[in-house]
């Protein structure tokens, strides 16, 4: 027999064509840096080839039903045994899987209880004994009415059962009941052999009356004989009774069937609790989630359910009902919920039953009353959950539910009859709740009769052995009833290891992935002893491991490296632990020998005065402990396996903080008495080991959300708007834009019958994933694939991908990212020049907020102690270096490279940094030079800027500059365009539905943009993005600095109500806009949006020209900078009424004055500053509610009014369409 495992030419992933010879029947450790190629060699090469060869040894028919692995990229492997992989993947996400079922211990327990268990009456607890014929007759004679004596023949078994039915006919029976339907024996239809059937024989039909005892006894004897000791009595129209010659309670009259293993399985309907179907838990609406803060009143939105947050909006439906309840039952809507009478609380949650209320309503066109019952908030949610067929709707309602123990089985999962069977006074559920150690002690100390001992001997031996294996791998603390989905990766791996030990195989190659992970050093020795035991049985073990103790106990070590990824994939050293420690090339050997080590810190950060104090934690095995956790330091929670670390951190601290800080709807119940010091924390971020994605369609761009932004960019192109494409068109996961030949995969799977499947590029889309029409839409000459979009772009910022908003967000928060060096940027540009299809044009030399390049605090020590929430809002920080000279040097150096015709800035700039006045005149001069060079040389026809809003309140949340600065920059932009004879455009970028923004704000903004001659095509809904103040406000509903409540439009209806005003130029929108402006009390804005003389027809702009394809404004557009008679520079036009005072016309504009002096401008955003904001909540608003019949609410199946401009889509559309 070959004593060596020889691998030649392994090239899988990053492996560098390595050759390796390993000893067989030894404990071998693969070690090295993370990402060096250990798993590629162990799992993707050795295991994959071993599995493939084993499957190929089977018949071609058997291979049809087995998943076959592809041949790894290796020349050949000799001496390979059948391979078994034991990795760290979670055992199961099935809530029905437990430690007992995964290890098959529960199967042996079911057999034990079915054979030697003693049944008891589930009602009175009395031991159930056999029933005699006389007892059965007496019990039946006590009934009334007509009965049927039935003998069970088949219970839930697949098959046609033709022979059985023929035998029943021969025995003289004339009626049978099949699956609940009664048939004449000669008229039974053919049965589906693929389905389970229950067949009963009707023995006799009787009317209960004196004198039938003899016939009844004979019929029962016949039924017992045919049904193997089991008979049924069907009281027609009432109930069906089961009688057994073996088990029945004479007092309660309760009978159970013969004990079988399936009675003790919670995965089988014959054993599972009928209430929870064997799960042990039920999902129910939790009143504590419905009313999370009982100190609030109804007017303060105590009921935290979408649609029921009435507030003080008297027009909402919920407010109408609550007001009627308050009037009917005599309570105030300003009374805290906790102070309301218990009866009123119950009525609010569960309804009035049959009692009717008089509900008053007020509408725009009248008022009235009607009488109706009140369903109740919880009852309403439960009904909607039962009736809906939408998975999304069910998911929304499930957010208000929590898992509660089943009231019938109390979490035991089994029906009462199964729980009433005991062995030595312990039920199977009680044994499952024991730890491995306790269960082993119980199973070895059973007191049985001689007959029972003979029956249970082999079962006891198997259970004891499997429990012992779990102890040996350090899992003695687990209970057999613990859910498999709650196990860590290391625990799940060791459970599978224990299962393999129990199999007792020899000559097998086992491959394990870090089995010591999560294991305390005290338990490590037991694990190693188990692995050595498997080796001594004649098996080869390959362990991917970093643990020092495991490596020192190994027979052979292979060190792979020297680095990770491209820098790894080579065998650095191999041999015994002593040989590895002597190797100078092995970093692992240097650490094992002690030549290199990780020094302990000489000093540690001292604990401050901020602590998190947990009081009386008592979840799982925690014994009412008090724990003090210091804040601001790196805290480690450790202990032996199963000591309660995860219970403390995950079940107590994490879930409590998620509820209190992150406002999670989950409410931890009875886990502790409380946690002190929570007010010192802002939020909690949970980083666990769960995989980030399971679908093969997922990639880094889709997971991080970057691809959403790319799709949005393509959806905003003129070509996409003309074709009516939304951002969903550019997704390869849904129908419409994807290639239907490959369903957006780009590859086709060719099934090779019993050979491994082959994947080939799609012949239709050539691997591009999209159909021809979608690929015709281009952005800067590039189609949707992300690589094509960034192929000729260079990002100036380090650590972020072009197109994301991280850099801008960092600026908002006062943290400027690290930027790339000039040498690094030029090196990348030179590589791009060498690309075969490069035409000389860089599509994007910049990145997000490109002119932030090289900006940082002048005095870094001042930045470290600075408490300002932003470096740029409300004004530029004096300590911020705003020098643009370094960026100018990069532009000049790139443009000077041979092969570069022109470089463009594809993203936006921050004009507040351009307009900032510095005390250093050189900095001001660099800003002026950069502004002029940017507009003249680096703008590809359009320059994107983001004023985003005009309202000072909203801009405060955005951390954006005053709208006055936008006016100033636009004047500079127009002036330079005129001087250079250019026709560049500004792309204004506005955001609606931002926290703090109301409909009135957007209406005012629409008036200002109209005055600026902006025919908007880009109005984006606010999207929560990590790290911003706005996102925190959006999620919490409060200003994080002042704790004042802040309104955010979140529903589709609320967002559409804000966005509608920007599309005043569409005739079909005019009536709705005017109606809405009157409703919110801003009828004064109608004159500013519309010319009253054109009330009867379509709106025609006054001295303005609108280009349907234009975004923004150019200097040559009529109406900008013109006088009343259309002459340039002679006065102020209609748009100047809404511009800041002091601008005059373009000819009077002094660029240096504003660039150098940086004086604040008056007017502009302050045009509406004296208007009083009207606070309202559009939830269940009457006018909004009625308007949904006229406007597209965003449903993807509806089209808007005129062409494609008014279509409703995924929250980011041009306008509001009408229903046709």
Key phrases:
42 helices; 34 strands; 1220 residues; alpha/beta; 6-stranded antiparallel β-sheet; 32% helix; 6-stranded mixed β-sheet
Estimate the mean pLDDT confidence.
78
Q: What is the helical fraction, as a range of percent? A: 25-40%
Which class best fits the helix and strand makeup? alpha/beta
Please tally the β strands and state the result: 34
Q: What count of helical segments does DSSP give?
A: 42
Q: How are the strands of the biggest sheet laid out side by side?
A: 5-19-20-3-21-22
> What is the overall shape?
globular
For the largest beta-sheet, the strand count, sense and barrel status come to:
6 strands, mixed
> Segments where pLDDT lies below 50 for 5+ residues?
799-815, 1093-1220
Structural overview:
The protein has about 1200 residues and is an alpha/beta fold. About 30% of the residues lie in helices and about 15% in strands. The protein has 42 helices and 34 strands. Strands 5-19-20-3-21-22 form a 6-stranded mixed sheet. It has a 6-stranded antiparallel sheet with strand order 9-8-10-7-11-12, covered by helices on one side. Strands 2-1-4 form a 3-stranded antiparallel sheet, covered by helices on one side. Helix 36 links the parallel strand 33 (about 985-990) and strand 34 (about 1020). Helix 5 (about 135-140) packs across helix 7 (about 215-225), helix 11 (about 375-385) packs antiparallel against helix 12 (about 390-400) and helix 15 (about 435-445) packs antiparallel against helix 16 (about 450-470). The radius of gyration is 38 Å and the shape is globular.
């Amino acid at each position: 027999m070959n004593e060596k495992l020889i691998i030649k030419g392994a090239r899988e992933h990053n492996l560098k064509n390595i050759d390796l010879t390993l000893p067989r029947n030894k404990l071998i450790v693969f070690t090295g840096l993370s990402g060096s190629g250990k798993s590629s060699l162990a799992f993707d090469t050795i295991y994959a080839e071993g599995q493939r060869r084993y499957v190929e040894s089977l018949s071609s028919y058997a291979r049809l039903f087995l998943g076959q692995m592809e041949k790894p990229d290796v020349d050949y492997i000799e001496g390979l045994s059948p391979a078994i992989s034991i990795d760290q993947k979670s055992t199961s996400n099935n809530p029905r899987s437990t430690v007992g079922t995964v290890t098959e211990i529960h199967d042996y327990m079911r057999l034990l209880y079915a054979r030697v268990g003693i049944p008891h009456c589930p009602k009175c607890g009395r031991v159930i004994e056999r029933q005699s014929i006389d007892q059965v007759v007496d019990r039946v004679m006590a009934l009334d009415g007509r009965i049927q004596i039935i003998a069970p023949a088949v219970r839930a078994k697949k098959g046609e059962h033709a022979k059985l039915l023929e035998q029943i006919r021969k025995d003289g029976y004339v009626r049978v009941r099949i699956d609940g339907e009664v048939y004449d024996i000669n008229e039974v239809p053919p049965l589906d052999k693929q389905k389970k059937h229950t067949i009963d024989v009707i023995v006799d039909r009787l009317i209960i009356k004196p004198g039938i005892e003899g016939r009844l006894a004979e019929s029962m004897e016949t039924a017992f004989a045919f049904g193997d000791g089991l008979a049924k009595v069907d009281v027609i129209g009432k109930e069906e009774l089961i009688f057994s010659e073996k088990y029945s309670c004479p007092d309660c009259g309760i009978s159970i069937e013969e004990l079988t293993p399936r009675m003790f399985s919670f995965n089988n309907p014959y054993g599972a609790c009928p209430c929870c179907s064997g799960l042990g838990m039920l999902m129910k609406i939790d009143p504590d989630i419905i009313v999370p803060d009982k100190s609030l009143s109804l007017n303060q939105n105590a009921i935290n359910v979408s649609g029921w947050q009435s507030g003080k909006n008297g027009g909402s439906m919920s407010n109408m009902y609550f007001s009627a309840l308050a009037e009917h039952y005599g309570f105030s809507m300003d009374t805290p919920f906790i102070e309301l009478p218990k009866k009123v609380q119950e009525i609010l949650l569960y309804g009035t039953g049959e009692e009717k209320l008089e509900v008053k309503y007020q509408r725009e066109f009248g008022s009235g009353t009607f009488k109706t019952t009140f369903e109740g908030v919880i009852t309403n949610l439960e009904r909607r959950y039962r009736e809906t067929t939408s998975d999304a709707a069910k998911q929304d309602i499930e957010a208000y539910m929590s898992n509660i123990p089943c009231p019938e089985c109390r979490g035991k999962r089994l029906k009462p009859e199964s729980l009433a069977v005991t062995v030595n006074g312990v039920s199977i559920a009680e044994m499952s709740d024991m730890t491995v150690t306790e269960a082993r002690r119980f199973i070895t100390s059973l007191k049985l009769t001689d007959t029972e001992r003979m029956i249970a001997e082999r079962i006891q031996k198997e259970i004891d052995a499997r429990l012992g294996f779990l102890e040996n791998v350090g899992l003695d603390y687990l209970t057999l009833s613990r859910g498999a989905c709650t196990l860590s990766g290391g625990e799940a791996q060791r459970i599978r290891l224990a299962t393999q030990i129990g199999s007792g195989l020899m000559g097998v190659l086992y491959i394990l992935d870090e089995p010591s992970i999560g294991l305390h050093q005290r338990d490590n020795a037991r694990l190693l002893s188990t692995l050595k035991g498997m080796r001594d049985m004649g098996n080869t073990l390959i362990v991917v491991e970093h643990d020092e103790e495991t490596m020192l106990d190994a027979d052979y070590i292979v060190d792979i490296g020297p680095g990770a990824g491209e820098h790894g994939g080579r065998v650095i050293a191999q041999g015994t632990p002593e040989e590895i420690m002597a190797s100078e090339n092995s970093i692992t050997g240097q650490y094992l020998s002690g030549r290199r080590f990780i020094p302990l810190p000489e000093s540690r950060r001292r604990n401050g005065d901020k602590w998190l104090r947990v009081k009386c934690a008592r979840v799982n095995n925690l014994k009412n402990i008090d724990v003090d956790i210091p804040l601001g330091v790196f805290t480690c929670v450790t202990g032996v396996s199963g000591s309660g670390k995860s219970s403390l951190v995950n079940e107590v601290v994490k879930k409590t903080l998620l509820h209190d800080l992150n406002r999670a709807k989950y409410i931890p119940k009875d886990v502790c008495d409380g946690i002190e010091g929570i007010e010192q924390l802002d939020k909690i971020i949970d980083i666990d080991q769960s995989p980030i994605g399971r679908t093969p369609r997922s990639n880094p761009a889709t997971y991080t959300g970057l691809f959403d932004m790319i799709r949005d960019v393509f959806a905003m192109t003129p070509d996409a708007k003309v074709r009516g494409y939304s951002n969903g068109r550019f997704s390869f996961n849904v129908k419409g834009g994807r290639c239907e030949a490959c369903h957006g995969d780009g590859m086709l799977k060719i099934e090779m019958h019993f050979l491994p499947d082959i994947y080939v590029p799609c012949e239709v889309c050539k691997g591009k994933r999209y159909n021809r029409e979608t690929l015709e839409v281009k952005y800067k000459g590039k189609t949707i694939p992300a690589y094509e979009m960034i192929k000729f772009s260079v990002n100036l910022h380090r650590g972020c991908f072009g197109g994301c908003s991280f850099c801008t967000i960092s600026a908002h928060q006062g943290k400027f990212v690290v930027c790339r060096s000039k040498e690094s940027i030029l090196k990348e540009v030179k590589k791009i020049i060498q690309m075969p299809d490069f035409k000389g044009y860089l599509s994007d030399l910049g990145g997000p907020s490109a002119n932030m390049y090289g900006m940082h605090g002048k005095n870094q020590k001042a930045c470290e102690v600075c408490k300002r929430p932003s470096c740029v809002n409300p004004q530029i920080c004096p300590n911020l270096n705003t020098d643009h000279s370094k960026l100018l040097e990069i532009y000049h150096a790139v443009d000077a490279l041979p092969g570069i015709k022109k470089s463009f800035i594809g993203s936006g700039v921050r004009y507040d940094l351009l307009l900032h006045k510095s005390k250093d005149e050189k900095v001001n001069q660099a800003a002026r030079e950069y502004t002029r060079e940017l507009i003249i040389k680096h703008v590809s026809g359009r320059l994107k800027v983001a004023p985003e809003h005009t309202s000072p309140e909203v801009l405060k949340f955005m951390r954006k500059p005053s709208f006055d600065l936008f006016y100033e920059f636009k004047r500079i932009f127009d002036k330079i365009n005129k001087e250079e004879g250019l026709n560049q455009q500004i792309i204004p970028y506005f955001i609606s539905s931002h926290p703090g923004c109301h409909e009135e704000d957007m209406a005012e903004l629409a008036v200002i943009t109209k005055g600026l001659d902006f025919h908007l095509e880009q109005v984006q809904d606010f999207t929560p993005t990590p790290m911003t103040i706005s996102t925190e406000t959006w999620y919490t509903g409060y200003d994080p600095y002042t704790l004042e409540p802040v309104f955010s439009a979140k529903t589709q209806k609320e967002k559409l109500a804000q966005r509608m005003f920007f599309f005043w130029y569409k005739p079909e929108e005019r009536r709705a806009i005017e109606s809405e402006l009157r409703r919110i009390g801003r009828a004064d804005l109608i004159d500013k949006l519309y010319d009253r003389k054109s009330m009867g027809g379509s709106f025609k702009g006054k001295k303005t020209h609108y280009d349907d394809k234009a975004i923004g404004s150019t200097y040559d557009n009529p109406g900008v900078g013109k006088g009343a008679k259309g002459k340039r520079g002679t006065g102020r036009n209609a748009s100047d009424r809404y511009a800041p005072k002091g601008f005059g016309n373009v000819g009077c504009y002094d660029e240096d004055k504003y660039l150098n002096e940086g004086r604040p401008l008056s007017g502009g955003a302050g045009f509406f500053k004296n208007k009083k904001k009207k606070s309202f909540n559009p939830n269940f608003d009457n006018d909004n509610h009625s308007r949904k019949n006229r406007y597209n609410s965003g449903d993807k199946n509806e089209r808007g009014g005129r062409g494609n401009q008014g279509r409703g889509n995924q929250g980011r559309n041009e306008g509001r369409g009408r229903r046709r």
